[in-house]
Amino acid sequence: MLARAVRLLLLWGGLLACCTGAWATTTVVHYTSAEMLREEAASFRPLAATVDEATLPGRWTQVELPRVIDKPTASGAGKLPVVTTWLRVRLDALQGMKGPTHFYLIRWLAAGQIAVYADGQLRYRSTGSAVWNLFNHPALLLPLNLTADSPPPRTLLIRLDSLSTPEAAISSFYAGDSDSLVEMAAKRDWLAYQLPFMCSAAFLAVGFFSLAVWVVRRQPANLYLFAIALLSSTRRWHFQLGPEKLIVSDAWFIWLTLNALMWQSLITHYFLQFLHGRAMPRLSRVMLGMAVVFSVVTLPVTSVFPSLLALRPHAHLLLIGMGTLVLLVGLWHSWRSRSLDAKMLSIAFLLNYVFGVYDWARIKYVLDLESYYLTPYAAMVLFAMFVVIMFRQYVGALNGVERLNTGLEERLQSREAELAASYDKLRQVEQRETLSRERQRLTQDMHDGLGSSLVSALRVVEGGRLSEADVAEVLKGCIDDLKLTIDSLEPVEADLLLLLATLRFRLGPRLASAGVTLRWEITDVPALNWLDPRNALHILRILQEAFANILKHTRASEIRVATSAAEGYVNVIISDNGQGFDVARAFASGGKGLSNQQRRAQAIGAEILLESSGTGTLLTLRLAEKRPEP
């Protein structure tokens, strides 16, 4: 990947070189040599509006461009001496050229300022501070003609004022057709500044988005991404801003850029630990302590070092050492882990490290100072890698949620199947228990009712005390009793009226054969949700006993059956016009009929009200609408 990146950069440089060569053969001249004159002073001297090159002290010497300015030989009475370097170029090749012309200087490096004179007249002066001009690595593009029709100047003088530390340098330059040079400068500016700036702005925007996500979700990866994006933009802001003076002092600017690189390396170390999952608490504490000490010691307010600009080369060595440690530890543990994200971040940090060392060698003038700085492109690689990592984290989170949902759905289906099987077993058990209870109920009821009647009839018949008509009457009663038992098994669905209709159907013919008129005055009543076969049989038995008592004892010719509902009760009323009886005496005598009715009424939570006189008997069965408590 590194080799491909280098080849791509070389291709860009080759294209620019081809374009430059083509311009040089037509309307643009590439100047790679100049005459140089040096002056040394204790402080910066003011710029003059005009300069006469003949009055400048010293001797002009021919030098090649690009050129590194030699350090001064004097110490300047305890102060950092200032070097003023003059470069003189004759623009003979531009004479006779028609149209506007421009001057394009690729780069100048100096902790100081630059000024350009055309035929002795000041055409340009830098506006930034000495430190900012050093960090900004600015290119210089300015017109040579005062008007479109005026001829280009014959001589250019470039004045470069710089501190002795760090060393200053100046690149070769171009002069000629304005359109060609503006296009050339625009292309180089887009590649060197605009493209990295757009990526850095996008990186910072993604960082703030990650910070917002961290505030909501508290995931460490989002906080790490924000911190690295912010620190990456801070340490490279001199690539992205203009030559204007900043709102912070030069000392604070140097402090911010140096410490941003230190803390970026440290945060990357923590992020790598998070990704590959191999914690190194002791090493992390040592590195954190180093970063804190470095930040405190280099604070401009502490005055530990009189000049951070002089400290900067030594600080770079410490930063390279910190980056080397983070790189080696991160690569080792990332490659031993199974985390692809950790490996990708390690590769991105490796590229940042290599590009950073490359640029450090360039500012030491070991390499060509006119080539592109690579650390802005390293930031682009880091941004792209972070986008890939966060995308993978997001997709991985979605896949995890999907797997979790799938697992939950499978467990839910399994649980539902288990519950369904359990419910089936419970239904089967319940059905068996219900059938068993019904068998017991029917057996008990037939034993107490039909069986008792048959046994009694059998004993009387064996004793010869009943006539055939009496035996037939007993058998009819037994048959009616059996029919009522069977009828109680039919579903009535909480409908009392349906149950009464069944009773009328069974007992109606017997009443008619006995010469008793049945008046049916049934009205609609609320449903009884507790009316099941067991309770229905109790109600039928109570009413059957009432009819039997009327036929046997009251000599009634008419029976009236009515219903009503009031105050949460449903009433079933049976009255006759017979001769009546003494209710108290009947209960005192211990008759089984009345006692059976009371017992059955208590079993269903009902109440029997009995009134009797010489004009008839009134029986009221009060049934609660709601299911009675057991």
Automatic annotation (TrEMBL):
It comes from the Bacteria. Residues 398-432 form a coiled coil. The keyword Cell inner membrane does not apply. The chain crosses the membrane at residues 190-216, 223-239, 251-275, 287-309, 315-332, 344-361, 373-391. Residues 1-24 form the signal peptide. The keyword Protein biosynthesis does not apply. Residues 534-627 form the Histidine kinase/HSP90-like ATPase domain. One of its GO terms (molecular function) is ATP binding. It holds the Pfam family HATPase_c. CDD domains: HATPase_UhpB-NarQ-NarX-like (cd16917). Keywords: ATP-binding, Coiled coil, Kinase, Membrane, Nucleotide-binding, Signal, Transferase, Transmembrane, Transmembrane helix, Two-component regulatory system. InterPro entries: 7TMR_DISM_rcpt_extracell_dom1 (IPR011623), HATPase_C_sf (IPR036890), HATPase_dom (IPR003594), Sensor_HK_TwoCompSys (IPR050482). This is ATP-binding protein. It comes from Polaromonas aquatica.
